[in-house]
Every structure is written in C-alpha cells, then in structure tokens.
Amino acid sequence: MLRCETIQRQPLLKLQFVLWVVLALLFGMGSSSTLFAEESRGTLRGRFVYDGEAPERKKVLVTKDKEICGALGLQTEQLVVSEDGGIADVILWARTKNLPEPEGLTKGVTVELDNKGCRFEPHVATMRPGDTLKVKNSDPTAHNTQISFTANSPFNEGIAVGGVKELKPRKAERYPVDVSCSIHPWMRSYLLVQDTPYVAVTDANGNFEIKDLPAGVELEFQVYHPKSKQIKKVTQDGKAVKWKRGRFKTKVSEGGSDMGELRLSPEVFN
C-alpha cells in the first residue's frame, strides 16, 4: 500500500517542482524589469583637475614633411591640462550590464577620425560595436593609420591625400586602443569601442557629462586616461579615494548628480 501511494505522489511532486521553477523564473524576470521600471533618468557630472602646477606641453619634434607639419606649432597631447587645472581626455564609461537605453537613440552611426593638421582629430574617439569608423585624410600629405585592436582585426592602412577608409569593428575592446601613424611617429590618438551609450570624454576644461542614466540604482563606471591608464586614486571633497582597477560605483539622482572636483595627483601620470 505504501509503495502504491508513493508511485501516485510522484507525478504530483514533479508538477509542484515545475510550478515552483516557473514561479521562480517569473519572479526573477519581474524583479530585473522593475529595477529600471520607473524610467527616471539623470545626468552624472564632474570635473577632473590636476592637483599641482599644470605641466607645460612640449613642442613636437617634426621629423617628416617638415615644410607642412613643421609650420603648425604642434605640441604633445599625452597630457593636456588647462590653465586652471582641468584635465582633458579622461574617458569614462558604464560597466553595468543590461542598462535600458535612452528612447530614440540612433544605432549604427558613423564616427570620423581625421588625419588633420598632422595630428589625429579627435584625440580620443568613441564608438559602439557595429558603428562605422570613417578614417579620413584632410592633409596635403599622405598618412598611415594603424589601429591596434585586440578583440577586432588590426587595421593598418595608408590614407592618400583626400582619401577615406571605412571599417566596422564588431566587438567591444576592453580598454581604449592606440591609433598611430608610421609616417609621422608623433601622431597618436585613442579609440574606445564599448557596447554602451553611456560614455564621456572630458573636455579641454576637464568637465564631463553622461546623460540619461537610469536614476536611483547603483551603477559602475570605468575611468581611464591615455597616459595614466586606469585611474585608481583621486581626491574628492578633500578626501583620498581609491578606485580599484579604476572603477567606482554611484547612484545618480533623478535630474542629475554632480561629483564635483576629482583631483588627480601628478604622480598618477608618472
């Protein structure tokens, strides 16, 4: 009799188990969707500042096409600091996965990287996998553009005067990759390929803004500068702060949050 009851209960137990799994999945889906359900948004702002006397930019030693490039008064771009200490070209991007994207966001855009004035413009470019990178040459002399991808196939092409080459990286790169010109060795820039719209590069005064971030939830960001690589130490509100692997977490208020001045010691760039 006991054996018969056990056999009869087995289908019921299986059904209960299946129902439990379904409910668990539904609950999990609900919890992940409600994480950003309110669709409230905010902007993260801040300013990176050099905590010391602004370093003087050195004059570039022009060794090729002197009649063209030598007349431009080129200066090094590895560390650009404004008169009041603002640090240009600090790169920030969201590491948090599966964030909802802003409405009306255009995908598959074209990003331009120009050989112009015997330098790359912009010094730091950002794009997403699947975007098109248009490499141009607006100079009256030929250039070469080498992009040191690691996740994507390397790119190394000559760009004739007025020439254009297009490529479409399909994979995200862990960090910004180097861009260089083998003809003019002082030419260097950086390209970030990340699958997120939440990216910023500080302007000439050290300011950044990342708009339309989901508000009220903890987000993780990566911070990187071409010279220092991962930025791991900052001073914020007069206190020394460590960012492990150059990452920090924060919540953005609806409407916006300001991180204030983020001061970087000169030793960060040594």
Concise overview:
The protein has two helices and 19 strands. It has helices spanning 2-34, 66-69; strands spanning 41-50, 91-94, 110-115, 120-121, 124-127, 132-137, 143-147, 155-159, 164-167, 177-180, 188-193, 199-201, 207-214, 218-225, 229-230, 233-236, 239-242, 247-251, 257-264.
Topology summary:
Layout: H1 2-34, E1 41-50, H2 66-69, E2 91-94, E3 110-115, E4 120-121, E5 124-127, E6 132-137, E7 143-147, E8 155-159, E9 164-167, E10 177-180, E11 188-193, E12 199-201, E13 207-214, E14 218-225, E15 229-230, E16 233-236, E17 239-242, E18 247-251, E19 257-264
Parallel strand pairs: 1-19, 3-6, 5-11
Antiparallel strand pairs: 1-13, 2-12, 2-14, 3-4, 6-9, 7-8, 7-10, 10-11, 14-15, 14-18, 16-17, 16-19
Explain what the structure shows.
The protein contains two helices and 19 strands. With 270 residues, the chain is mostly beta strands. The model is unreliable at 21-34 (pLDDT under 50). The protein has a five-stranded mixed sheet with strand order 13-1-19-16-17, with no helix packed on it. The chain is globular and about 55 Å long. 28% of the residues are buried. It has two domains: 1-34; 41-269, Sandwich (Immunoglobulin-like), CATH 2.60.40.
Largest sheet: 5 strands, mixed
**Distance between the first and last residues' Cα:** 82 Å
Low-confidence stretches: 21-34
Q: What characteristic shape results from the CA principal axes?
A: globular
The number of domains is: 2
Q: CATH-wise, what's the superfamily of the largest domain?
A: Cupredoxins -  blue copper proteins
**Separate helix tally:** 2
Mean pLDDT: 90
How much of the polypeptide forms β-strand, as a percent range? 35-45%
Which H/E pattern describes the elements? HEHEEEEEEEEEEEEEEEEEE
Number of strands: 19
Q: Supply the CATH class of the largest domain.
A: Mainly Beta
Structural class: mainly beta
CATH-assigned fold name of the largest domain: Immunoglobulin-like
Radius of gyration over C-alpha positions, nearest whole angstrom:
25 Å
Question: Into which percent range does the helicity of residues fall?
Answer: 10-25%
Describe the strand arrangement of the main beta sheet, using strand numbers: 13-1-19-16-17
CATH architecture assignment name of the largest domain: Sandwich
